[in-house]
Amino acid sequence: MPVLIYRPINECLITMKKSIIYFLILINFNLSSDEGMWEPFELTKLQKQLKQSGFSKDVSGLTDLFSHPMNAIVSLGGCSAAFVSPDGLIATNYHCIESFFLQFNSSKNENLFETGFVAKTKDAEKRSAPGARVYITTSSTEITDDVLRGISDQTESLRRSELIEENKKRIIKNCESSEEIECRVRSFFSGETYKLEKVLKIKDVRLVYAPPAYVGEYGGEIDNWMYPRHTGDFALLRAYVGKDQSVKEFNKENIPYKSKSFLKISAKGVSDGDFVMVLGYPGRTNRLLTFNEINWDLTTGFEESIKYLQRGIKLIDDHTNEADGSKLKYRGRKSGFENYYKKISGQNNGAKDFNLLEIEKENWDQFLKFANSNGSKIELSLLEELLDLIDESLDENLARRYYGNSTLISIAQRIYRNAVEQGKPDQERKQGYQERDQERIRNGIKRMDFSFDSRVDMEIFLDRLSSYSNFDAKLRRPDYSKNLLLDDDFELTKKKVSELYSSEFTTADAMMKLKDMSLDELDSSNDPLIGFVRSIYPETLVYEKKYDERIARRQLLKSNFIKLLRQYYQSNNKEIYADANGTLRVTYGNVSGVELRDGVYYKPFTTLEGIAEKHSGQEPFNVDDKLLNKISKKDYGNYYFEPIDSVPVNFISTLDITNGNSGSATINSDFDLVGLAFDGMLETIIADYKYIPQARSISVDSRYLLWTLEKVEGADNILKELTIVN
Q1: What distance lies between CA 624 and its chain's CA centroid?
Q2: Which of 109, 283, 356, 406 has fewest C-beta within 10 Å?
Q3: Is the pLDDT of residue 6 over 80?
């Protein structure tokens, strides 16, 4: 049997210390009671761990998607949320509603970021941007055999990709029985298993409450990913349906959705050591990667991402302004860049602080030792092929980041591709261009009205093109490079790009007309933008085919790796859980402070007084006098918490969360809402790669939410609608 040996990119790895090896063992094979983002059905095997953490109830109630509290949990498509009244009222994070609700409803004359918003009546609630949705998971069913129908290990890679797509489309078509139902095929364990997720899709979502920015994002980017934190990261939406409870787009005649279940809000909150759970939709973790992938991220990927994001932030700052409204239009994109930049920077530093590279190298060596002793010749050969495939694609991935950074061109490309696909029977169209996708395409175009400026877009595109042109020609797309004159003087590239942006199709209305054109009309168009996307379309298909083939092969190889990894975990008598993938998950833990540095202990709660202490009169620490007066008078109301002699603002816990968990309901043992998860701590954000026992999640306390609604906003109508428990 051949011996599989890792061929490191960097041979000069630091010699391991015994303490580091012990820490490796701790984080990889002694599964912490708080570790894991679990599918609801998996909780039955964790009853013992849950009990040890303080959960005394029967766990079976949490495994039923149709029962309380699981059927109160919803997704906003990138963020999590929960129903908090029987009339469709939804609680989520402030930062989750910035683009689709605050940015969409703001203007130079009425900036909701500055003023906040409180709907005193349902009629006053504000509609969302096109495409805002509430998704309620109704079922999750394993369908691995159906997805892989007609496929064997000997199936050629491209054919494998085609068959998987065909099977997915067939499964989805049979599942989507009505317009209100959306079905998704989800991959778990890198394609080892597949599940069919069935969700109810609510299309009319309205803004009920958002605090002003000095509450909702207090501390701004300075405090982002930091603790102690004093951010009121909460907001309220409402779901609406037709009078017959059927799903409909926005209409003044629609009525509030009658939620099957909702969470009560705790005015008592939690104390240090209390059991808590988070129910939500985490987006992505990277805990089942090969060492080759981790090594590249830690030695190259993080630094490259930091450069890319830093530049993006500067480009937006340099090219937007208040006068023409572009600053407001790009507020959401800039916030996204800033958020991700700080996270990646924290992960980069955390990897060094926790010696992650050295730890993972040792762990990988242990895995390879197991694989060489227990894996078959075929399994080892497939693992070797996987590592080769990963290595050869890394530089390409770096170049791909700088390709296609034009929103205008991207929308035009999608419209042209859609016209091509419209000439085929629906089931033969590429996923993303079927009849079920047309609404999403139209809504994407409509959002140009409040999130796009052609001048700013062109400046960003030119800067990214300049970087793209510096990559080796073999890493760039030749037709794309040729048409944009990237191998000539860059002044000629600028002239070419300026020509593309002189197109008549640079607004939402114009793009919508473009979408209504036939393929023949597009092919006969003399517009420079349409001509460009038409010229690079054949190359796009070539690269798409190459990408699909590689993904299909990689997925098969990764599946083989996961099987070996599962056996390795089992040999150590440990559980393995799937990486986050946007599906409904449950995490559990306890309210707990943490010591991350010698002599520095982070208390579990922050206070109202901490807001006043940070107040400087300058953004992002500039608080309205009304709130400051309430704090100075110690007007705590019913939300006073004796152990801290104040009202709690934020708290930290051992909950294992990641991006996508934003807005997740943090609940107690009685399933009452005690907070909304919204962030992690920068020092331990590397936990996306490997769970770290010292990692802490940050939640906004339910008592601060209620205190703000009562004492600052006077939102009696909202408070009356909530079910508040002590």
Answers
A1: 31
A2: 109
A3: no
- Has residue 717 been placed in a domain? yes
- Concatenate the DSSP letters of all residues of 284-312 into one string: ---TT--HHHHHHIIIIIHHHHHHHHHHH
**Residues labelled catalytic:** 95, 233, 662
Q: How many CB atoms lie within 10 A of CB 587?
A: 27
C-beta of residue 666 within 8 angstroms of C-beta of residue 675: yes
CB 159 within 8 A of CB 135: no
Section 239-259 average pLDDT = 96
Q: Are residues 159 and 206 in the same domain?
A: yes
Q: Average pLDDT over the chain, rounded to whole?
A: 93
Contact 583, 660 (CB under 8 A): no
Closest listed residue to residue 240, CA positions, set 231, 248, 228: 248
pLDDT, average across residues 348-368:
95
For residue 273, tell me if it sits in a domain: no
- What pLDDT, on a 0 to 100 scale, did the predictor assign at position 711? 97
CA angle 645, 649, 651 (to 5 degrees): 95
pLDDT digits (tens, 9 = 90+) for 507-554: 999 999 999 999 999 999 999 999 999 999 999 999 999 999 999 999
Average pLDDT over residues 467-494: 96
Q: Report the C-alpha gap between 276 and 262 in whole angstroms.
A: 17
Question: What predicted TM-score, i.e. pTM, was given to this entire model?
Answer: 0.92
Mean pLDDT for the stretch of residues 147-164: 92
Handedness of CA 620, 621, 624, 626 (dihedral sign): positive
User: What percent of the chain has pLDDT above 70?
Assistant: 95
Residues in Cβ contact with 677 at an 8 Å cutoff, skipping those fewer than 6 apart:
80, 278, 280, 655, 657, 661, 662, 663, 664, 665, 666, 697, 698, 699
Please give the single-letter amino acid code of residue 162. E
- How many whole angstroms separate alpha carbon 676 and alpha carbon 679? 10
Q: CA dist 158 to 151, 164, 434, 536, 555, Å?
A: 11, 10, 21, 22, 12
Q: Supply the range of the domain harboring residue 323.
A: 1-30+291-374
Question: In this structure, are 382 and 368 located in the same domain?
Answer: no
Closest to 89 (Cα-Cα) out of 233, 260, 257: 257
Tens-place pLDDT, residues 580-632: 999 999 999 999 999 998 889 999 999 999 999 999 999 999 999 999 999 99
Distance CA 676, CA 665 (A): 5
Residues 138 and 210 in one domain: yes
Quick: pLDDT tens for 66-78. Answer: 899 999 999 999 9
Residues 636 and 607: their CA atoms lie apart, in Å, by: 11
Domain end among 358, 374, 390: 374
Q: Are residues 537 and 421 in the same domain?
A: yes
Pick from 305, 364, 298: nearest CA to 340: 305
Separation in Å, CA 144 to CA 156, 232, 443: 19, 42, 32
What is the average per-residue pLDDT within 314-331?
A: 96
